[in-house]
Amino acid sequence: MPQHSASAQDIDHVAAVLVACLPALHRALDRQVGQEFAHPKPPEAQLALLRYVDAHDGATVREAAEALRMKPNNVSALVTQMTEQGMLERRQDPADKRIAHLHLTPTARQRTAEVSKVMGAHLAQALSALTEGELDALGSALGALNALTEQLHRPVR
């Protein structure tokens, strides 16, 4: 555990603000996508899987489940649903027929890019309204936010 001078009260305050702020940020972006995206916005679990497969073309269900911190049967159900919707393809492994590799369809690739573009544009617009100091503070916090995300994804012991 890292050594720091932050008090338990300071840590509790930061935690409370993040718990309130992060979901509100997500809902605001989600609402913008819902208003501007020409298609029904996929649920967050589907978007997470699409983003993962986009970045890791050919991943297996097990690999996706581990990376997304989801149960393999839940990811398998998502894959089945998204395959039926024409968003994912399952391709059988030539060496082991029990393993399927996941690939985005062209439609999924396009829609995932569109959702990311809408979210990015709205976030960029909001960021441009901040002061230089606020932007600097957010830029400095990115590494810490990524570290926090990794810490939260570690298995509880």
List segments where confidence is low: pLDDT < 50 over at least 5 consecutive residues: none
Strand order of the biggest β-sheet = 1-2
Number of strands: 2
- Name the average pLDDT: 89
Distance from N terminus to C terminus (CA atoms, Å) equals 14 Å
Principal-axis shape = globular
Helix content: 55-70%
Count helical runs. Answer: 6
H and E string: HHHHEEHH
Helix/sheet category? mainly alpha
Main sheet specs: 2 strands, antiparallel
Rg value: 19 Å
Percent of sequence in beta strands? 5-15%
Q: Can you characterise this structure?
A:
This protein is mainly alpha-helical. The protein contains 6 helices and 2 strands, in the order H-H-H-H-E-E-H-H. It has helices spanning 8-36, 44-55, 61-68, 72-84, 106-128, 132-153; strands at 88-92, 100-104. A two-stranded antiparallel ribbon has the order 1-2. Strand 1 (88-92) and strand 2 (100-104) form a beta hairpin. The longest helix has 29 residues, at 8-36. The radius of gyration is 19 Å and the shape is globular.
